[in-house]
Amino acid sequence: MVRTGTDAGPTLAVVAREAGVSVPTASKVVNGREDVAPETRRRVTEALDRLGYVRRPRFDAAKSPGLVDLVVHSLGSSWSGAVLHGVEEAAHDAGFEVVVSAGLTRTRGGRPERGWLDKLSARGSAGVLFNLAELTQSQYAWLDQHRIPFVLIDPVIDPPPGVVSVGAANWQGGVTATEHLLSLGHERIAVIAGHRRKMCSSARVAGYRSALAAAGVRHRPEYLRYGSFDEVTAHRRMLELLDLPEPPTAVFVCSDKMALGCYQALAERKLSVPDDMSVVGFDDLPEAHWAAPSLTTVRQPLSEMAATALRLLVRIMSGERPEGTRTELSTRLVVRESTGPVAGAA
Fold first, then answer.
1. pLDDT tens per residue across span 29-85
2. Which helix (H) or strand (E) holds 327?
3. What values do phi and psi take at 83, rounded to 5?
4. I want to staple 280 with a disulfide (CB 3.0 to 4.6 A). Which of 18, 91, 177, 266 is the partner?
5. Residue 20 — left, alpha, or beta (φ > 0 → left; ψ -120 to 50 → alpha)?
6. DSSP of 179-212, one letter per residue?
7. What pLDDT is recorded for position 279?
8. Mapping DSSP to helix (H, G, I), strand (E, B) and coil, where does residue 42 land?
């Protein structure tokens, strides 16, 4: 159980004793000071987490009412660029400035790093947007304890009850992608998904299976492949599908980035898109336009999702409570050159 550093919970002196340091040194770590040796910081951080110590709530939105934080999974992707664009535009309209951070890192022991959270409290931001974040129970507790408003953009896993989030209609996107391939005469349709436990993966696969069932097409378990949202894994899964006794004629790939890995695998086998294999992606990132042939994909409104999350955050910061905790924006199919009729069809 997470507790504050009060009489009902561990004091800073207890944390210092547990870590084998002085109280002033423990205080420096708690307050995000830089003048602490890495090994010392590690011991104090582990003691803080082990004892369940959380600083006394000190967050005050009025301290810096014009500042919000955006935490993205990484800064080196077109996905993050689209999210940042949406947040910046909506924040400008609302009169807020945005501080961008790349991810919540973890220590070697797998525990969430406290430094970023402590700096957030010290900075006094009015609220936080988390994109593709997988927050731990202790991090949720920390945000609640410090009364920091926050909204999740496309959460990785189901958030706790009451947490506000914005995402895309992933299930419907899976249906639309599969129905498009069915309309072209394909029945041997495979799907390459991301991590099995991720919300978006399970929803897109469920949509794929629903569309097959509605069309009276049997689902083949060997046509369902999971991996990671990266080109390397998708490349491997595509080769596995091609090695089946009866390989698919089309594949729904659950991200544009993964679709590029499939393109590479098909090229290695001297197969062409879409003559030998139709490919549908998901996201409609710039990479979908640049691919050769250009990628048919399900457009996920990333910038709109981010802007919607910022507007929801502003409402929460002003004391309102949204009617629902989950907002889903529509997806739509963008047909380009990577899909076509089954080879040999009349």
1. 776 666 788 888 888 888 887 887 755 444 444 445 588 999 887 777 888 889 999
2. strand 326-329
3. -65, -45
4. 177
5. left
6. HHHHHTT--SEEEEES-TTSHHHHHHHHHHHHHH
7. 98
8. helix
